[in-house]
Design goal:
Length: about 250
């Protein structure tokens, strides 16, 4: 199941978002998600590890029918306050989703993979319940900001001490191993290790192809999956004529 955020963690997430520079960072991450996932209004999306509902709110504003799932009661309480009845909320873990195969058009793991016990199983479950596309957003292992977070964790308690950081190459290898040669597109944002609006001036489409941005976004085009089972074929037996010799 991985690390389950408590009330203090949920409160810290809310406080983080109130900072103007962090709000600018989140907007850049959501823009990347929208550009890569390319969802259409009316489609369904599952936010796996929905946290306090920030992504759910963004999905609703894009006209999507959103569902969120998270193992933390505290996170879900904050999410319920944020989205109300505009999105469905469920309690559960990424490695064992309580939904049918192909139940959603899209699935999203937005800074969720870092905190699960089994990232490969979480990816497999996300691919199982989605039929069109999967978006994975992670904190970049090789970004300057990612290295800074890990160093800070050596000297003071931090939620990032519990996180597993990924690189573009690690995620692509995991997806190839799991799904084969499916179409995969990636970009990064927040390449400049500065905060907020000032850093946003340096963002452009060319820099998004740099693999060292603080936030990595990967979109996967999923191939149709069906379950097959043996088909029983019934043959009519010919009636045997009395006294006939079997041929």
């Amino acid at each position: 199941m991985g690390y389950v955020f408590d009330f203090q963690d949920a409160l810290a997430c809310e406080r983080w978002m109130r900072e103007p520079e962090n709000e600018a960072v989140f907007r850049a991450e959501i823009r990347l998600l929208r550009d890569l996932l390319q969802p259409r209004p009316g489609e369904t999306i599952l936010d796996i590890g929905c946290g306090t509902g920030l992504c759910l709110e963004a999905f609703v504003e894009l006209g999507l029918r959103a569902t969120g799932i998270d193992p933390s009661e505290a996170m879900l309480e904050f999410a319920a306050r944020r989205v109300g009845r505009r999105a469905e909320l469920h309690r559960g873990v990424a490695e064992e989703l309580p939904f049918e195969d192909n139940a959603f058009h899209h699935a999203c793991l937005f800074t969720t993979l870092e905190f699960v016990d089994d990232p490969r199983r979480a990816l497999a479950e996300a691919c199982r319940v989605a039929k069109d596309r999967l978006f994975i957003g992670v904190l970049n292992r090789y970004a300057i900001k990612g290295i800074e977070r890990r160093i800070r964790g050596l000297f003071a308690p931090s939620i990032y001490n519990r996180a597993r950081f990924f690189s573009v190459w690690q995620l692509k290898a995991m997806l190839r191993d799991l799904l084969g040669p499916v179409p995969v597109t990636w970009r990064t944002v927040c390449q400049v290790p500065l905060a907020g609006r000032f850093a946003a001036r340096f963002e452009n489409p060319l820099l998004e192809r740099c693999p060292f941005g603080a936030f990595v976004g990967i979109a996967v085009v999923l191939m149709p999956r069906v379950r097959t089972r043996p088909l029983a074929v019934r043959c009519a037996r010919r009636a045997r004529t009395p006294g006939a010799v079997p041929g």
